[in-house]
Amino acid sequence: MGRRTLVFGSVGVAVVVAGVLAAVFAFGSSGGTQASSTVTGADRVATLLDGIPQQGTALGDPSAPVTLVEFADPQCPYCGVWERDALPDIVDGYVRTGKVRVVFDGLAFVGPDSLTALRTALAAAQQNRFWNVLELLYENQGTENTGWVTDSLLRDIGAAVPGLDTDRMLADRSSAAVDGLITQANTTARNAGVTATPSFAVGRTGGQLQLVRVNSLTASAITPALDAALKQ
Q: 3-state class of 19 per DSSP?
C-alpha cells in the first residue's frame, strides 16, 4: 500500500514554528464567515457524522469497548484516500453502533500546509467539531505543498460546519491547547513506532493499543483487528 514515510526529526517543526504562525493566524482571521460553493463534500460529511458524539479528537461513544487510533497528516494524499474511501465504512459499521471509538493523532510533516490544516482542525476540536473540519479538509485536499490551505478555504470550511464559530477556530490555532495536542500526538506516534502515514493502533479502550499493519487503504484491512479486539 502507498503511505508517506515519516521522519520524526521533522515532526518537531510543528511546535517550533508555532510562534511564527501565531502572527500569521492573527492577521488572517479577521472578517465575516460565508459558505462557499468551492467547498465540496459538506453534505457527505454531515451525513457521515450526524448524531455521533465528538470529544476533542475522539469520535464515537466514550464507553465503546475498542479504540482505533489513526496517525495521519491532513496533507498526506494516502491519508486522504483512507478518510474518503475507508473511514465511512468503519464509522457506519463500528462507530455508529457503539463498538469502536476513533481517535485522531495528527502529524504535520509533509509541509507547511500540513501544519496549518492540522492546527485548524485541532482548534475546531475545542468546540467538538474536529471531525467535521478534518473530513472537509480531506474532501477538499489539494496537491502537496502548493499553498492550498488558505484562510479563504478554512473560512469556507468553517461556514459549512453547523454550530462552529469560525472566528474562534481561527483564533485558537495558535493556542496552548493546540500546542499540547500536537506534542501529545508526536509523542504517542513515536512511542508506538509509527514510521508512515496513515498508521493505526487498535486495542481495548483504556488498555494497551497495538500498532496494526495494513496492506491496503480499505476498511477490510483494519476490520479484522477491530473484530479481534471486540472478542477480547
A: helix
- CA nearest 203: which of 222, 220, 187? 222
DSSP, collapsed to helix, strand or coil, labels residue 100 as strand
Domains observed in the chain: 4-231 (3.40.30.10)
Q: What DSSP designation does 168 have?
A: H
Pairing of strands 100-106, 58-59: antiparallel
Percent of the chain that is helix, strand, coil (3-state, to 5): 50, 15, 35
Helix or strand holding residue 226 (H, E): helix 223-231
CA nearest neighbour of 8 among 107, 74, 78: 107
Residue type, 125: A
pTM of the model: 0.87
Looking at the chain, the whole-number percentage of residues with pLDDT higher than 70 is 84
Question: What residues contact 207, with CB distance under 8 A and at least 6 apart?
Answer: none
DSSP string, 35-69: --TT---HHHHHHHHTT--EETTEES-TT-SEEEE
φ, ψ of residue 58 to 5 degrees: the values are: -100, 140
Which residue(s) pair with 55 in the sheet? 58
pLDDT, tens digit (0-9, with 9 covering 90-100), for 138-167: 999 999 999 999 999 999 999 999 999 999
- Written as one letter, the residue type at 111 is G
